[in-house]
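Honest question from a wet-lab person: if I give you the sequences of every part of a complex, can you actually get the arrangement of the whole thing, not just the pieces? Trying it with mine:
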Amino acid sequence: MKKSMEIRDLHGEINGKEILKGIDLDLLEGKVHAVMGPNGAGKSTLSKAIVGHPDVEVTKGEIIYKGENIVGLEPEERALRGIFMAFQHPVEIPGVNNAYFLRTALNAKRKFLGLPPLNAAEFLRLLREKIRELGMKEEMIQRSLNEGFSGGEKKLNEILQMEILQPDFVILDEIDSGLDIDALKRVSDAVNKMRDGKRTFMIITHYRKILDYIEPDYVHILKGGQVLETGGIEIVDALEREGYKIFGEEQ
Amino acid sequence: MRPIDLDLNTFPEKKAIVQKLRSMGMPTPKTEHYRYFGIRPILEREYTLRLPERVPVEASDSIEIVDGVVTKAPEGLFIEYLPQVRVDDSHYDQVYYINHLLTPMVVSIELEESGELRIVHKFTQNNTFTPYRLKISVSPKQKVKILEETVVVSESSLYFYGYDMEIGEESRVTFISSRITHIHQFALFGSHSISVGKGGEFHLYTFDLGSGRTIHNYHTILHEKALNDNNHILFSKGEGRLGNTFHIEHRGKESKSLQLSRNILKDRGRGIFDGLLIVKNPAKYSSIFQDSRTILLNSGPFMVSKPQMEIHTEFITEATHGSTTGHLDGEALFYLRQRGISLEEAKEMLVLSFLDEIFQKLGDEEFRREFITIYEENR
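Yes, you can. This is the full assembly:
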């Protein structure tokens, strides 16, 4: 099966402290990979390393995406190549209009792909269509980016961005945190609609609930900065029963 | 600068100004509001004094003042040239008095009706020192918008100018000033005195941009229920030194002053926001608010931000002040970049979002677009 991303012996530090201690992980094209682990296991650091967050310094190893080691690339270069992260805590940026931001992002991607930019009218048509599909309020178009949005609205806005940008590799970083059941279901429905057999998802979560809505193909357990176990949903069932101690003591 | 001979027998009305100036002393590098502006190299340079003269005025849509000389003005606008006008006797800036002392005739404009006035200042001379002043009187119950623009061609000159503005009772003046200069040897001192009558409003929007040297010192007097709403955007780059200093005096009860300052600095640019809000004892139930925020785009610039309050009454409705200086929010930058937006464009978006509060208040989309264009051309 074709790999979307290969992570090889990845070591990474935050503020000089090694968090990732040799991650080896294959993420397959078109599949949903759930990444679980106790607090401090390195889940968020791994996602930050993939998207090129400046907090994480990769000291060793490779992240091969579409045949290219992306470790040295800038965050925007990775994004333009199709890597998207839905943030656990999307930042609020007052004064940056949601529509303007999204059009800038989309046209940056179109330019990267050699496509002509969408003008304001064309973009607005696309945006309205996506907003309708997601059941969002149209007023969000003109509001400042994430400013004053509820937790659910922020997460839906992340999904809206994903719908507009159509990435190939999606990281959902604890997208379920702070969501009530209804909001979680809406977000999950939107993600499921984007599962097309080609797009790869990496879901970082602490809880099983989201995996009831977005069924993973693989579950990976991270602990102490390494991948300890890879399997199917049955791993989650075992976790539910016995906790992370089944994977050994904290390193 | 060489000493200037002034024959006070020719200008007897200026003797009081000399007395005032004598009591204050001349501005020096230690004068508080010039402390960080770097006044010494400006004053030590050699200039030729150039006093503006009266010339025939051409009809135009706007007032055009070239090196202190009114060359164009709208037809029907009442302009007088007065050897001396009433001087604010409590201004904190020595340059205000020097300017009044040296200016041979003050350009006086009466605005008796609501409307819009555009004033363009052109600075074209080299190695000259030019003082000039304007007096603007707005009749009561009028609504006036003044758009001020500066065009700097001069490469090495010193200009003193300023407004003495009297805003009549219940009048509203919106003054939008766009001041752009990139010439380091050019220096502009603006020293202004504004009196806002009972129930009047003075809304000031200033946009200082570039690598030159400009400083504006405002003394504002607020009478009962008067409002002074000041909004400043400052973008200093290169070796630029751009500043705005204020003494806003609340003299009447229930008066209100607001100050928003948004500063962006890069290279070795310097910005000055030095605002003192003074609530006098009779100005009971007044409200005062100051908020100065600065973004440093690299590690070289220097911001002087001094929000200050002096309250002489026990009865104050609101008194809030704050100042922050920092770099662009790293998480916000990363968020935008994670969506494929380049670092430069992401910075640009955050800078413009930082300024948005003032543009929202101004509510002039055309001006906002124009300013953004100018900013983008000059950043």
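Two things worth pointing out. The mean pLDDT of chain B is 93. Residues 3-327 of chain B form one domain.
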